[in-house]
Amino acid sequence: MSEMEVNYLGHKRCELTHKSSGTKIITDAPTDNFGKGESFSPTDLMSASLGACMLTIMGIQLEPLNILIQGSSCKIKKQMSTNPRRVNQIDVYLKMSSLIKLEDRPKVEEIARTCPVQMSINPEIKINLQIEYI
Fold first, then answer.
1. Strands 24-28 and 126-133, how do they pair?
2. Which of 1, 61, 94, 101 might form a disulfide with 131, Cβ 3.0–4.6 angstroms?
3. Residue-wise pLDDT tens digits, 40-54
4. pTM given for the model
5. Residues 46 and 35 in one domain
6. Claim to verify: residue 52 and residue 19 sit in the same structural domain
């Protein structure tokens, strides 16, 4: 089990602390929701976590198969709805090595589509996944 702590700092800003490592992250409300937009918003973190989870779980599952993904990257675009205000779409653009063999690519894509964060997101949120092998 992982433990985190969140402290409200005022002015729509929070400090998140990962208890076992002491790592801290600051969140800020976005400018379109009365914040300064000087850091990730909570919904930015949720959306970015999807890409980080995809790449992390690929590393965990593919490394033992000697399918290396160093240098892979991910770009995330988040869209919000207004009524209710919530994330309604996340576009994920994965850039993977073209050295990944054609026969291994379905496994890579399956892992991306079934990562723990993806499986935890409300199915009403549309997730568009594009994978480019460069």
1. unpaired
2. 94
3. 999 999 999 999 999
4. 0.94
5. no
6. no
